[in-house]
Amino acid sequence: MGKYDFKKVAANHCTGIPAVKKMIELGYPVVKGTGRFGSKSDLFVGNGDEVFFG
């Protein structure tokens, strides 16, 4: 994925916590969530979170 030079990467629970942790470890610009409204972690965008691209 590094060759695409992403400015933001948004993941959700379907991506999986281990995969999101690996993306962060590799230096990808993962947008974190708040971890509220039933989300299991703040490592990914969850219920009630918003991400704006552009």
List the main descriptive attributes of the protein structure presented here.
mainly alpha, 1 helix, 54 residues, 17% helix
How far apart, in Å, are the first and last alpha carbons? Answer: 19 Å
User: Residue ranges: pLDDT <50 for 5 or more in a row?
Assistant: none
Cα gyration radius (Å): 11 Å
- Secondary structure tally, helices: 1
Shape: globular
Which structural category fits the helices and strands?
mainly alpha
Share of helix among residues? 10-25%
What kind of sheet is the major sheet?
A: none
Strand content: under 5%
Query: What is the ordering of alpha helices and beta strands?
Result: H
Number of domains in the coordinates? 1
Average residue-wise pLDDT: 92
Q: Specify the oligomeric state.
A: single chain
According to DSSP, the number of beta strands is 0
